[in-house]
Amino acid sequence: MSEKLNLIGKPSKGDTAYKWIATIAAITILLLLAGVAIFLAMSSQNAFLSSAQTIESQVSFARGMGFWGFTGAALFGTVLASLIALVIAVPFAVGIALFISHYAPKRVGTVSGYVIDLLAAIPSVVFGLWGMWSLEPLMRPIFAGISSILTPIFEFLAGTKELVNGETVWSGGLPGLRYMAEHFAWWPIQPDAAAFTPPARNILMGGIILAIMILPIITSLTREVFLKTPRLQEEAAIGLGATRWEMIRMVVLPHGRSGIVSATMLGLGRALGETMALLMVLSPGLQINFNLLKPGQHSTIASQIALRFPEASGLSADFLVATGLVLFVVTFAVNFVARAIVARYSEFSGANA
């Protein structure tokens, strides 16, 4: 009997080996992350230390802007495209996940789950080709219709502008909104903010492509969270007279709240670093505005690096590496905040019950 107790209390060789393998893997991940950060920091020193005049003369694609001006404009486009993608993708992803987990017959739900998982494996360049050749012509009349509806509203709010003897003259609009639109180009309520200019190679198209790309990821994770809702709680809600939607609203969604947030943040991380699809769909620009339907207004950090790096050398290469460092820091911060949000939501949800 004592021998059995000793054998039970002593860790087996397999447990010890697994512990060391897991520890080494965790340390390796941390070392790789630190190595990437150190490489980016060391390789981007010249870009941070060079003067604006040096950058203007040696970095032609900066278009006369300094490092922070160029990076700020590219980062604005990156965040804007990602937020557009989240606004579009998250409601659809939650709806599809609820359909698969609680509405569809088991066989239909299983097949739909396989299809969603396969969509997540499609390369981004395929999405870019499809968006450029197939989706873009289809979206032109839709964007034109959106523009015809929103442009009169924006003109009523912010006024209109026209060139008179080479000067921009404003008229109409509400006083406060017109002042902001007249003096700040980044103000979202502009008379031409919803003006559509074909082709549809604008940031809204980029956001739609990103939404389609991150939709399978968010859907798959959210579906798995919904499927893990305690069956007893669902049956208790139904037994008390709740309809299926009331049961979902009172039991499933609160229980899966942390999972929805986690899946959303994972999709945001994918959207922030996306390169090829946006490079193929967007007509690049470096403006800080909310002209969502005009081409040549926005770009992203990742697409700028992919577009410029093959021909870059010297300070130009360091300049692009420095923009990559900024994207690295932003992505790291987003993931850090996401973990904090998930932990907070898990504390008040039924996920840990």
From TrEMBL:
What sequence ranges are listed for the domain ABC transmembrane type-1? 75-338
Q: How does it sit in the membrane?
A: Multi-pass membrane protein
Which SUPFAM superfamilies does UniProt cross-reference here? MetI-like
Mind telling me which Pfam families this protein's record contains? BPD_transp_1
What are the transmembrane regions? Answer: 20-42, 67-100, 112-133, 203-222, 259-282, 319-338
Is Methyltransferase given among the entry's keywords?
no
Q: Which InterPro entries match?
A: MetI-like, MetI-like_sf, Phosphate_Transport_Permease
Q: Does the keyword Nucleotidyltransferase apply?
A: no
Q: Which domain of life is it from?
A: Bacteria
Per UniProt, subcellular location reads as: Cell membrane
Sorted alphabetically, the keyword list is: Cell membrane, Membrane, Phosphate transport, Transmembrane, Transmembrane helix, Transport
Q: Which family does it belong to?
A: Belongs to the binding-protein-dependent transport system permease family. CysTW subfamily.
Q: What name has this protein been given in UniProt?
A: Phosphate transport system permease protein
Q: Which organism is it from?
A: Arcanobacterium wilhelmae
